[in-house]
Amino acid sequence: MEGDSVKLLGFWGSPAVLRVKWALAVKGIECQYVEEDLSNKSDMLLKYNPVHKKVPVLVHQGKPLAESLLILEYIDETWKQNPLLPHSPYERAQARFWSKFVDDKCMPTVVAAFSKVGEEQQKAAEEARENLKRLEVGLEGKQFFGGDNIGFADIAIGWLPYWIEIAEEVVAINLIDAGSMPKLNSWFHAFIDIPIIKELLPPRHKLLHHTKAFLQA
Amino acid sequence: MEGDSVKLLGFWGSPAVLRVKWALAVKGIECQYVEEDLSNKSDMLLKYNPVHKKVPVLVHQGKPLAESLLILEYIDETWKQNPLLPHSPYERAQARFWSKFVDDKCMPTVVAAFSKVGEEQQKAAEEARENLKRLEVGLEGKQFFGGDNIGFADIAIGWLPYWIEIAEEVVAINLIDAGSMPKLNSWFHAFIDIPIIKELLPPRHKLLHHTKAFLQA
C-alpha cells in the first residue's frame, strides 16, 4: 500500500507544476518529485492522466489528480494548515476568478504577443497589456491577492510576471509596464522575494534558453 | 441596501446560465431573474462583469460573481443544504475535473463537429465522440456523477447531451451513440427526468431554432 505518500510528476519548466510545488511548500508537505521527459512521456504519466497526458499529476495515497488549479484545491482541502483560499465564499470566488482569468484569457494573449509577428503581434500585445492591467483590480487595497499573506491566486499567477520578464528578453516587446501597472509590479516583486517562493523558481538562464526554444518553435 | 437578495443575469439559451438555475433550484434558493439581450448588453451586465461581459452573473447581497463553475462553488459554499460537491477531497477533485473537461476539451470538439464541414468535420466528430466516451469513466459504478444523487458535475454537464440531441437535428451527424456510451446515455435520461431539472430546460423547439442560427452563423 502507498500509505500517505505524496508523489508529483512534473517538468522543471512548467508553470503549472510550479504552482503545485509552491502550494506543497506553503503547506510544508514533502513529496517525491519525478521529472518527466515530455518528449517521451512515462507509462506512469499516461496511466495517471490518460485524458490530458500532461504534468502536473499529484499522486496522493495512490490516487492521481490532474489540472493544476484543481490540485491546489485538493491540497488546500487535504492539508488545512496555512489556508490557500480565504474563508469567505465571495473572496474564494475572487481568488478562483483571477486564477482562471490568467489561464483562459491572459495567458493566450501573452503567448500570442511573444510568438506572432507584425500587426498581429501588436494587437496581441495590446490585448495582453489590457489583461495584465485587469489583474490590478484583484490587488486593490492589498499587498497580495490573498491579502496580507500569499494565497491561492498568488500561487496560481506568480509565475507569470517572472516568465514574461524572461520572454521580453527573447522577443523585443514590453508587456509589463511598471508605470501603468504599479500594483501588479510591486506585488510581483514582493511575491518572488518570499524565500520558499524564490527557491523553487526555475533558474533564470535555464528558463531563458527553454523559452527561446518554445517561442521560436 | 440589497440585504440577502439573489439576482441572476442570464440568457434563456445559455448552458452556463442553466447550470446556475439548476444549482439554485437544487438548493431551494429563489432569485430575481433578469433576462439579458446579448446583442445589446445592459449597463448592469457590463458593470458587474467588466472582464468577460458575459452571462451568467449572480449578484448576492449586492456583490457580483461571474463564471458558471465558480458560481456553482459559491452557491455550494454559501447555502449548505443539498451539497453539490461530495465530502472527500479526492471526489471533489473528480467532480471538478469532469466539469472542467467538458468546458475546455469536450465542448470545443462538439461545436467543431457541428460547425465545420467535410474532412475537418469528420475529424472533429471523431474527437468529440472520444471525449464524450471519456465521460463514461466519471460514471463508473454510479448512476449520477454525484453518486446516488445529482451533484456538481451532473449540473455542470447535464445540458450537453440535451443540446447535442438538438444540434444533431440541425446537422446530420451523430455524436452520442447509446451502444458505445451506455452509461452516458442512461445517466442523461435519468438526469433530465428529475422534475426540477426538466422544468428548467429551455423549450426544445425554441432551442432548436436558436441552435440553427448559432451553427449556421
From TrEMBL, chains A, B:
Residues 88-214 form the GST C-terminal domain. Signal peptide: none annotated. The keyword Transferase applies. Keywords: Transferase. It holds the Pfam family GST_N. The keyword Metal-binding does not apply. It catalyses: RX + glutathione = an S-substituted glutathione + a halide anion + H(+). GO terms for biological process: glutathione metabolic process. Its EC number is 2.5.1.18. It is an enzyme of class 2 (transferase). GO terms for molecular function: glutathione transferase activity. Residues 4-83 form the GST N-terminal domain. GO terms for cellular component: cytoplasm. Belongs to the GST superfamily. This is glutathione transferase. It comes from Arachis duranensis. The gene is LOC107460940.
